[in-house]
Amino acid sequence: MTTSKPGAPRSSTWLPRWEPNDPAFWEQEGKARAWRTLWVTTFSLTLAFAVWFMVSAIVVRLNDIGFNFSANQLFWLTAMPGLAAGTTRLIHMFLVPMYGSRHTLTLGTLSLLIPAVGWGLAVQNPDTSFATFMVLAFLAGLGGGNFSSFMPSTSLFFPKKMQGTALGIQAGIGNFGVSLVQFLTPLLITAGAFAVVGGGQAVTAGPQAGGTLYLQNAAWFYVPLLLIGAALTWTQIRSVPIKANFREQFAIFGDKHTWIMTSIYMMTFGAFSGLSAAFPLLIKNLYGGFENAPLPLKFAFLGPLIGSTIRVLFGLIADKTGGAILTSVSAVGMAVSAVLVANYVTPTSLDTFPYFVATMLGIFLFSGIGNASTFRQMPVIFNPPQSAGVIGWTAAIAAFGPFIVSMLISTVTVATGNVKPFFYGLAVFCLFNLFLNWYFYGRKGAEKPS
């Protein structure tokens, strides 16, 4: 690793000096730039999450406009962005230390124009094949991949004592992109805002049969915003002069705490992202067959909204209390909520629907606490730039959440006829991580108290 000033040809991109843990430097120069960088990158990260999860909002209406995909196929479409997000995060985790924040984050934002435009075109053509939708669903996951560049970048800009606050704000507000897309989609697809570049589709099934949907709006709405985000990132962001090559970054894999925190973050963010993607289809599949069935997106956005809000709030709290105690609270709360959810996944009427939603929201709430506390723990357990690498790695693995959760739900449902085993399994996984967190980070005399 080198912290020397990069060569002159890159002076417009790389900062000549960056020492956020020096109080004098922080007050004179660092604080203003760090906060400006945080707000600009958080705007783009929110859009990245929106593109990542727009598939989960679109697929619940595909069959209503003439497509004929099975429930299993729809879960595959929901899963593919998670597969891409996890895969591309494994690449993104190395980019910022090698190429800097400015180039990496700008190009990452521009790449999201591909799935945004692609989905807008595909949903208007009733002959679009399932294979094409699978490719487009995978490309939407590029938005999830960006996370592993944004978060390590932010960790470099702030002093260690403010890591929980800064990362909690960015990740929490960024996570709002999930609820944003699920909340806005029902409103966007009923308005002909982009009719000039694409007509609407007739609704052939569902509660709005006989009407017109502009399903392309759910994707095209983000195109101008992505262009703005890329422009802001390029003009306002500079790169921290911390460089590391592949060999230096791979050193994190020799530390057992990298693997422990990976499992814990899979519990928190893996469940959050996975259930955020699957929630709309779960509502439709479990309760959509009853008369006056609930509209999935009317309720599904509440989960990621609660989880995101809690993540912002508990990022601030974690800097005061430490992360380990809050991660334990998260694990216990998620385990209990998962067991409770299992009681309402084989409904015989709509009477149990409010309880299903409430217990699902419990999982989202406690996962939000854990998402904040784990990002407070990692900068304490590891020193920079290793902490940035671990944040990127754990985020990469947890981004497989939508793929893993959707595939497990689909597989379990086919094998047993319901999703109860999935939620019982989630509870067991949470208890396993509760033990890991307590033993290594939370108990008296723990190896790495955090």
TrEMBL record:
It is found in: Membrane. The lineage of its organism: Bacteria, Thermotogati, Deinococcota, Deinococci, Deinococcales. Pfam families: MFS_1 (PF07690). GO terms for molecular function: nitrate transmembrane transporter activity. The keyword Transmembrane helix applies. It comes from the Bacteria. This is NarK/NasA family nitrate transporter. The chain crosses the membrane at residues 38-62, 74-92, 104-123, 129-151, 172-198, 218-237, 258-279, 299-318, 325-346, 352-369, 390-410, 422-441. GO terms for cellular component: membrane. Keywords: Membrane, Plasmid, Transmembrane, Transmembrane helix. It is a multi-pass membrane protein.
